[in-house]
Amino acid sequence: MNTPCEMKAAFEKAIELANGQSALARILSTPEKTVTQQRLWHWLKVKGVCPAEFVLRVEASTGVSRHLLRPDVFGEMPDQQAA
Hints:
By secondary structure, this protein is an all-alpha fold.
């Protein structure tokens, strides 16, 4: 299973691919729930992972796999399960 450091690295890669924390926060925001850059920073720096409820949207917008972002929720990458 991915370590917390690997999950954080995947989240950092998603932020980079989205062109920064502010850009990803705007992508994740909905009329029902606003995600601010500060909240995203907190997830990254304090918690170290993307909240599970946002993983699929992060994956869709950046291409970073849900299996890398949160293997504790979505399981390991399918090709790693056989190993």
